[in-house]
Specification:
Two copies of one chain form a homodimer.
Chain A (H helix, E strand, L loop, with lengths): L13 H15 L7 E2 L2 H8 L3 H13 L3 E4 L3 E4 L4 H13 L5 H22 L2 H20 L2 H18 L3 H21 L8 H14 L3 H11 L1 H14 L1
Helix pairs in contact in A: 1-3, 1-4, 2-3, 5-7, 5-8, 5-9, 5-10, 5-11, 6-7, 6-9, 7-8, 9-10
Chain B binds a DNA duplex (30 and 30 nucleotides) through helix 3.
Chain lengths: ~240, ~240
DNA sequence: TTGCTAAAATTGGTTGACCAATTCAAAGTC
DNA sequence: GACTTTGAATTGGTCAACCAATTTTAGCAA
């Protein structure tokens, strides 16, 4: 293989190639759950890539629970059913291909749950932080700074997620929000001209302060409705 | 720094140290959103670690949308509000500390949504795959193989998530399920002796086949109720 | 002073080499 | 023959060095 050649957009990244290949070995029956897969050096040589890429790929697979790696011993396929494993593989390979419609839809589900749980369980300290985020949002609105509005809007929603008391929910929301934000920017959604979201944020804070879970959840749902409809349109278009 | 010293459980992994430090610089005001952070070599030298760890940490931060790295140019902090950025940092640092209660609670939220959406939108082909997973599950049950039951149960739920048509939902579920599964194993939950989940799976398949979203969602909720109660107990204990 | 050009320094991307822990099999012992 | 010992080979973990693209700077010309 040529040395020091950057990977053009046409050819796949070694990362993908390796993961796909390991998946193939599993489907072929060449390897079974529980087996130890070839050493990193071996894999690197087979695919004609550096060991770094192999390690990177294996690390990703480990993150998804497909393999376990024991130092100075080897990397092993976990003892799940082949079908189950293949399902995870499919997800790992597509993970960066989160389509926008799915993300937005998912955001709505998570945010509504977060609002409900936050109204139920928020501590006083968390409420203070939500209030602070709200104030920053209002200030950005009055200032008319579009970029600041995005940023503080994001922060407001994040504090609510934190107030849900569910660390997993919070992390998952964080996982998709940056992508969604950048999409908003491109499409110039949530213009600063529209004051409706501002009122909704204020009201949302009140419901959370008053600990009214269902009302808060409903309002959050309404708050994201515009975006949801947009997602539905996208879904229809792609059909 | 000593060479080739494995990191004991007491001292933190370089990965964490680097991320924490970058966060600190941001909070100090030493760096602002949009700034370029020091070169990888510089950071490596400062923290007395290898460049590998710096790159690993930066890659993680890039994955969470905190920084953007441009080849041969540098790594830049994205232009979000400082508060917003710090929120993400908190999540990145805690990500591997998904507490079990949160994960289980989250799983229930995701699975109920998945069941509903699956009943609405599943294609015929997806239905076939769900049926196949169900049959494997039943077979494992009759065979009395506990490990196989876990595995096929997991696969059944996965096919439903796939049938939801929402790739993000699917990926998120995949993200937490392995951890949950391993916890189940440790606690010997969902024993093969109990045939209730078996009946629920059969019924769930029927509702999805008949395209009855709300009933399917309700049943899924009931199906996970036992686990949810367990999570609530854990939450109370930790309070 | 201003604008342009080229070379030197800096950057992230990539690779090969080294390290200690583990594994495994052959030699040794009873 | 069964068990133990030992050392060589293999493993993942770590690090330093090299590469090409980019950025910065120094020099020169107008």
């Amino acid at each position: 293989m040529e040395k020091h050649v950057e990977f053009s957009s046409e050819e796949q990244h070694p990362y993908d190639i390796i993961i796909r290949s390991i998946r193939q070995r599993l489907l072929n029956g060449e390897m079974k759950p529980g087996d130890r897969l070839p050493a990193e050096r071996k894999l690197a040589e087979e695919y004609g890539v550096s060991r770094n890429y192999v390690r990177e790929a294996l690390k990703a697979l480990e993150g998804y629970g497909i393999v376990e790696t024991r130092p100075q011993s080897g990397t092993f396929i976990v003892g799940l059913d082949v079908n189950a494993l293949d399902g995870i593989f499919a997800d790992v390979l597509r993970l960066d291909a989160f389509d926008f419609a799915s993300m937005v839809e998912m955001r709505a589900i998570l945010e509504v749950s977060a609002a409900r749980m936050c109204a139920q369980r928020r501590t006083e300290e968390q409420l203070v932080q939500i209030k602070r985020a709200l104030d920053n949002y209002i200030a950005a609105f009055e200032q008319g700074n579009q970029e600041q509005v995005y940023s503080t809007d994001f922060e407001f929603h994040r504090t609510i997620a934190a107030g849900s008391g569910n660390t997993t929910l919070r992390s998952m929301l964080m996982l998709i929000t940056p992508d969604i934000l950048s999409s908003y920017r491109k499409q110039s959604m949530c213009s600063v001209a529209d004051t409706k979201p501002l009122e909704e944020h204020k009201l949302l804070y009140r419901f959370i302060a008053e600990q009214r879970p269902e009302v808060a959840a409903e309002l959050m749902n309404a708050h994201l409705e515009g975006i949801l409809n947009y997602a539905k349109q996208l879904r229809k278009q792609s059909e």
